[in-house]
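For reproducibility, we list the full input for the adenosine-5'-triphosphate complex.
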Amino acid sequence: MAMDISGVTERRARPTLALFGGAFNPVHRGHMSLAAEIEARLEVREILFIPTGHPPHKEFPGISCEERKIMLDLAIGGHPGWVSSDIECRMKGPSFTARTISVLAIDPPPFFLLGEDAFADFWSWGHPEVILSGTHLVIVTRPGSEEERTRKAIIKTLRAGGLLDPLSAGDALLGVRRGKLEEVVWSLPNFGTTLRFLRISAVDVSSTDLRHGLAGENREYWLDLLPDPVKSYIVKKRKYQVFPK
Ligand code: ATP
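The corresponding predicted structure, in tokenized form, follows.
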């Protein structure tokens, strides 16, 4: 049962769509299990996966945004309600989540999924306020990530969300500082949205480890951390065989 100390839940209708952005380089079983758990727990009807566009000079050699999307489509293919967008692949220049959210302009605001590692850097992203007003942020746990940094980032977001004035603010902050974060929802009155923290049963894998692992001696082990159709694609096309020096 979620601890809801926000006093209000989502403004207007509860979102039925969740956005899931990431490099997906490559998409792995951790991404898939996160999406499945979110779909069930937040009862969303649709998940929109958005591979981040990288400027060409920052691409991992031989893997473009389009190819990351191809692998993503193989991974989510056949799953009702799971779709991908090439919006960031088509954007000129580096992609910014805030820009994507503005261009998509989804109303009512959808959920936006973020691992706690990614959220820890949230305030260094361009225009975080655009993301806060355009989506209901959902921060999920990752094995081995730094909960302390996440707590600090949540406190900063709550302060920015104007939760310090109401009586509930003290409890909200105390809850983050001392409480065990399991499933908590706060409202961000200044933005008309909410911020959620969800502890999920994450699969311990990252794309960074995968890229290293796939280029190493134990390629078979790492291939098994990929969704089956992605594994077949990577084997057939001989992708991720070398890790750049
Ligand atoms: P990299 O290691 O290259 O940073 P990644 O595995 O973190 O890649 P991304 O594509 O950057 O994958 O992740 C997209 C989003 O999914 C991020 O918000 C990230 O925190 C989250 N995420 C990735 N892997 C997991 C996992 N195993 N469990 C929970 N969340 C995850």
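The two ends are 48 Å apart (CA to CA). The longest strand covers residues 17-22. Both points were considered when choosing residues for closer inspection.
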